[in-house]
């Protein structure tokens, strides 16, 4: 038996972005460390022979490699690497014929994304403008005042000739920010998604869809798209070509996602997944029908988008992520794991079953995990809910009651899936190894139960989603699993909000952890990078007239005077999603009211904690905090 340590959690490696060759003979993927020790993440590019067996490393692991993309003839693999200058990725080419790796670009601004086009033609790039001599002079002279709306970065469409290395920039789309590209499977035009700018607050509402012909350089405007459109995909149908994407369902920003289908024959857009009790997460283009991944409760459904409707191909426990398929869609590769197994690359027919191709965390093989089981129950208003219960290692439910920590997921448009729950942030198996039972609820507002379930919390965060969580805790107390006198609550991001909200509503919890949490929705709408989205959750903004405002009633800071529970506050100093000021606000309020708390700031970190020592600190501090208050 291997003892679970913080080092075993953060020192491993995990696969990313699998890419199947169109002919299905080879697969590439990126292998990345789960934590970072320096300023940059070192990754490796791997190649798997799906016919003859075996795998080999293509790059040395001394740079950040990412986004492998195959040529249409499956003979060349393009990818990004910052080997020449760290933090500035360039396009590289790996030729299967002779095994050589060649750098194709030296664009001073770096390359954001790339797409090899059909035939021996160019590679489409997304890249910002290179700095000018005037920019360099301003930087030297420190004449670098930032004026809102001026010289804002834009990703533009560019074309790379891989034979000469020459990059051209077509004069298309005006000053719009290009988000994604996808070429029609027959080598026709590119579908191009753009936004008014790169600003996350403003951009998602300003999406537009275009066609671009790389041969003639001409464009065609297809019009606006639904909010936060992404993952464009083409497919043929009896009435001609269709072009689809995943986007938020109107009218709100806090809403379930849907697959939208634009028939180019009549220019009519249809919602192809309306009223389904599950949520599309990925749309994968093939040469035939598109494939759709659905979050389906605690598990995942894979379907094919046929002209007459959706055809379910297979169902899988837990999650499927980063779907890639052969040109005909018969074979797929995904990232998947199990209840007690980490995420690895899996491969097989789209109808299943899938086999595991990689074993990236062999050091976990000797770990004994706490028993994980699905939990189904009903909310106070009768709504069907689900979640997970993880018991202390070596214990069964009749051995209870146990100290129980409830960990709320982020989002809120996210979910707990029935997969291994062990991460650098507060996670179930880390606490189960220390003797805790852990409840992982999926309250309304989350993913996996359709649009209405997700949209129900817009402007009402902390209301019914809180009672959904409380009902689950009460059930576990009634079943003798949870000790009512030893309850804790934790969460990161929106889960941090729910943790801060909980301790302002009740004194039942003996300890709480607020990680990168929201405490004032009005302030977040004004300062967070996703302001419009946060305003939709909170229900109003500070400029909505003279208060009190609706967001005041759902902001934890409004209830800080009621808090008696000891609180651990963890936050990244450079967080732009939920800025550090949120944590400072809670810290000052708790200090004002004399509430026991700890406030920890992680330098150089954003919304997620990436540095190894900081991840270790989060794990150890989390367990020590709950040990102090729930296991004195």
TrEMBL record:
Q: Which residues form the Peptidase S9 prolyl oligopeptidase catalytic domain?
A: 428-630
Keywords assigned by UniProt, alphabetized:
Aminopeptidase, Hydrolase, Protease, Serine protease
Biological process (GO) annotations?
Answer: proteolysis
Q: Which domain of life is it from?
A: Bacteria
Record GO terms (molecular function): aminopeptidase activity; serine-type endopeptidase activity
In terms of PANTHER family, this protein maps to: DIPEPTIDYL PEPTIDASE FAMILY MEMBER 6, SERINE PEPTIDASE S9 FAMILY MEMBER
Spell out the protein name for this chain.
Dipeptidyl aminopeptidase/acylaminoacyl peptidase
């Amino acid at each position: 038996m291997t003892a679970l340590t913080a080092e075993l959690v953060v020192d491993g490696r995990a696969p990313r972005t699998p890419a199947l060759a169109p002919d299905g003979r080879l697969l590439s993927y990126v292998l990345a460390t789960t934590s970072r020790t320096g300023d940059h993440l070192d990754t490796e590019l791997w190649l798997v022979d799906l016919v003859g067996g075996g795998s080999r490393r293509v790059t040395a692991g001394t740079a950040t490699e990412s986004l492998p993309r195959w040529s249409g003839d499956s003979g060349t693999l393009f990818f990004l690497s910052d080997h020449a200058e760290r933090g500035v990725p360039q396009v590289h080419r790996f030729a299967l014929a002779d095994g050589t790796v060649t750098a194709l670009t030296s664009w001073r601004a770096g390359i954001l994304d790339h797409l090899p086009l059909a035939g021996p033609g160019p590679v489409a790039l997304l890249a910002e403008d290179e700095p000018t001599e005037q920019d360099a002079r301003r930087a030297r002279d420190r004449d670098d005042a930032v004026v809102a709306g001026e010289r804002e970065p834009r990703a533009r469409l560019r074309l790379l000739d891989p034979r000469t290395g020459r990059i051209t920039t077509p004069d298309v789309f005006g000053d719009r920010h290009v988000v994604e590209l996808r070429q029609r499977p027959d080598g026709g035009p590119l579908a191009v998604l753009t936004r008014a700018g790169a600003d996350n607050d403003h951009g998602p509402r300003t999406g537009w869809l275009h066609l671009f012909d790389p041969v003639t350089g001409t464009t065609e405007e297809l019009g606006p798209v639904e909010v936060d459109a992404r993952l464009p995909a083409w497919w043929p149908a009896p009435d001609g070509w269709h072009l689809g994407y995943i986007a938020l369902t109107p009218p709100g920003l806090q809403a379930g996602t849907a697959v939208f289908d634009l028939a180019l024959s009549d220019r009519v857009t249809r919602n192809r997944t309306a009223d389904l009790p599950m949520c599309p997460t990925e749309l994968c283009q093939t040469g035939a029908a598109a494939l759709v991944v659905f979050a389906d409760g605690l598990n995942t459904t894979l379907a094919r988008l046929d002209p007459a409707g959706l055809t379910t191909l297979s169902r899988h426990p837990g999650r499927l992520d980063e779907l890639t398929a052969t040109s005909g869609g018969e074979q797929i590769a995904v990232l998947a794991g199990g209840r007690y197994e980490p995420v690895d690359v899996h491969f097989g027919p789209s109808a299943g079953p899938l086999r595991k191709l990689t074993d990236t965390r062999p050091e976990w093989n000797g770990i004994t995990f706490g028993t994980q089981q699905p939990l189904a129950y009903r909310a106070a208003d009768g709504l069907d809910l689900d979640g997970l219960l993880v018991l202390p290692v070596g214990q069964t439910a009749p051995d209870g009651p146990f100290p129980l920590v409830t960990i709320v997921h982020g989002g809120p448009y996210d979910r707990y899936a029935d997969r291994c729950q062990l991460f650098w942030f507060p996670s179930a198996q880390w606490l189960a190894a220390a003797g805790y039972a852990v409840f992982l609820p999926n309250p309304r507002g989350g993913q996996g139960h359709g649009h209405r379930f997700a949209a129900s919390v817009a402007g009402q965060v902390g209301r019914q989603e809180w009672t959904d969580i409380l009902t689950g805790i009460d059930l576990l107390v009634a079943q003798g699993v949870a000790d009512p006198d030893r309850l804790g609550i934790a969460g990161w991001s929106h889960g941090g909000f729910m943790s801060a909200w909980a301790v302002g509503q009740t004194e039942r919890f003996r300890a709480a952890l607020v990680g990168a949490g929201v405490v004032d929705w009005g302030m977040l709408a004004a300062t967070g990078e996703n302001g419009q989205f946060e305003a939709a959750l909170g229900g109003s903004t500070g400029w909505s007239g003279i208060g009190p405002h609706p967001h005041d009633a759902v902001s934890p800071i409004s209830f800080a005077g009621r808090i008696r529970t000891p609180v651990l506050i963890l936050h990244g100093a450079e967080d732009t999603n939920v800025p550090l000021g949120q944590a400072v606000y809670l810290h000052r309020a708790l200090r004002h009211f004399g509430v026991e708390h700890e406030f920890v700031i992680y330098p150089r970190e954003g919304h997620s904690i990436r540095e190894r020592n900081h991840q270790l600190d989060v794990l150890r501090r989390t367990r020590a905090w709950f040990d102090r208050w729930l296991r004195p």
